[in-house]
Amino acid sequence: MAAPSCVFTIARVALMLGKDEDLLSDLAMQLEPEDGRLWIYDTDDRDTLGFTERGLESLKELNMIRSGGCRQHPGAHQPRPWPDGYAGEA
Questions:
Q1: Per-residue pLDDT of the chain (90 residues; tens, 9 = 90+)
Q2: Which of 11, 23, 42, 49 fits a 20 to 30 Å CA distance from 60?
Q3: How far apart, in Å, are the Cα atoms of 5 and each of 52, 54, 77?
């Protein structure tokens, strides 16, 4: 895997996704550095959350899960279809 070539601050990601920074910050706490979340340290003891491109995609997925727009995990158990082929319909 190639090394990240850029990092987006949480403020930039909020603008890009049209989401609230606090919401994204809460979602980001579920991510690990391997998922593309990292801290950026600046002068005067300032720091901010940053995201690689992978982190940006991870945040999008978490937001979709939160809003009910997708299943929780690509390998998550899916219900078996009913005999007529439609899951959950009688």
A1: 677 789 999 999 999 999 999 999 999 999 999 999 999 999 999 999 999 999 999 999 998 888 776 554 444 444 444 454 444 444
A2: 42
A3: 8, 11, 35
CB atoms within 10 A of CB 20: 10
Its pTM surpasses 0.85: no
Beta bridge partners of 12: none
Provide the 8-state DSSP code for 80. Answer: P
Q: How far is CA 4 from CA 10, 25, 30, 52, 68, in A?
A: 16, 21, 20, 6, 30
Token reading at 28: 């980001």
In Å, how far from its chain's centre is CA 37? 9
